[in-house]
Amino acid sequence: MKRRNFILNTGLAFAGAYSANIFGNEYLNMEDILLSNRPIPKNRTFRSNAVDKLIDKLKKEISDPQLAWMFENCYPNTLDTTVDYEIIDKKSDTFIITGDINAMWLRDSTAQVWPYLPLINKDEKLKELVKGLINRQVKCILTDPYANAFYKDLTKVSQYNGDIPNPIPGVHERKWEIDSLCYAIRLANEYYRLTNDNSIFDKEWKKSIEIIFKTFKVEQRKNGNSPYRFIRNGNQMIDAPVFNGTGRPLKPIGLVASMFRPSDDATLFGFLIPSNIFAMISLRQVASIYKNEGFDLNFSKECEYFADEIENAVNKYAVQEHLNFGKIYAYEVDGFGNKLFMDDANVPSLMSLAYLDKEFKNSPIYTNTRKFLISENNPYFLKGSEAEGQASPHTGKDKIWPMGIILRAMTSTNDEEIKKCLKMLLSTHNETGFMHEAFHKDDQSNYNRSWFAWANTLFGELVIKIYNEKVLDNCLRLFLCFIIFLLCLAFLLR
């Protein structure tokens, strides 16, 4: 079987395991899917030869025209539409908007470039783009570590200038989300791991790391209440924490409080478990960098200790017995014994833990949690006539997030489940060729955000992951067949 037929003819299963054509071009008119929805080259905000070469390669390898078309549209969407790159003060500077909102989220910007990172050693321009984003994120953190989204112009006044406290110039929105700071660490760590370029670790970067560490420490709430509060006038309860913007009471237990989820919705109980696990991972990455580079061994040890403290608290307070699934992770806790069983389609989420750290795939607690997440016991897992998948309070009761379906596929070890997820993604984009923030479970034409670069790029990452893993599977199978052949030949020649 030719590799180029791996998706169409094998149904994303092991080579030769299935012969059914699971993508039968039933969703779009064939004439509609021949034309790329990418901007013409001169209108793209950034061009990468390595990315374009990979797109051309996979388009030839994917037999299903719709999947190839969707991949070509989605994977480069961040580069095509959201990048503002320049040299500022002799340093690369990259500002990346989230799509239809003209602001940069620390979380989204990292996630948007993440699928391109494996290519940065093949494309110097792309490498500089990532390096520039690290530099820009440092500027943002130094501006306000509690803010989640920023303007390129650090003197610009926020459109949310009615929020209390009023965001300082340069800040788009000041929602305290642990994951925002974690994503900045995640990007720098992966860039360093891939390139061994330690030039990013300048004095500004180290200062931002110190601020992150101190902010996490303050938000453990061991020394009293946090200085953070957030009030927004409106009728949406999820737009701001209760009790005059300070959130519900929390008992200091070693976890870090987060007033908002990565969906930008207010938490119910302030200890958000996926984000705390993300913080644990991030602190260990910082510890490793500081140790390997010989920056500050004492600080490295402090980061390790902090990570261990979070892990111990997660195991003690967040691992809870569920009536139907045994020990699983709660989504939020408060330290008093209250807990919330749910998940949100954003990342970090409970579903995404195995995406953020592959070690979770082998965890019985994660396995049990995952079973819960895709069951009717999860209040934010929806089934409709169009699809099934994780939702988010952010977009209402009845809307499924493509991102949730993608993460389900990304964390799955079951080929049939991956097939199912991919088929749902291909059949719910409302003939746009792009992912959306969310769509109604019974009506795909009722969707949010036609331009959401994170979800688009993540879909591209999924396709690449499937391709790489199945090619590897095929190679391993061919190798095993060759070994068996040699053994049989040796036996016959005895």
Q: Your description of this structure?
A:
The structure is a single chain. The chain is mostly helical and 494 residues long. It is 44% helix and 10% strand. It is built from 16 helices and 15 strands. It has helices at residues 6-10, 49-61, 65-74, 77-81, 106-113, 124-143, 178-195, 203-218, 242-245, 273-292, 297-318, 353-356, 364-373, 402-410, 415-426, 453-492, and strands spanning 83-88, 91-96, 104-105, 149-150, 171-173, 271-272, 319-322, 326-329, 332-333, 339-340, 381-383, 388-390, 399-400, 438-440, 443-448. The strands form six sheets. The protein has a three-stranded antiparallel β-sheet. Helix 6 (124-143) runs antiparallel to helix 7. It is globular. Residues 1-32 have low confidence and may be disordered.
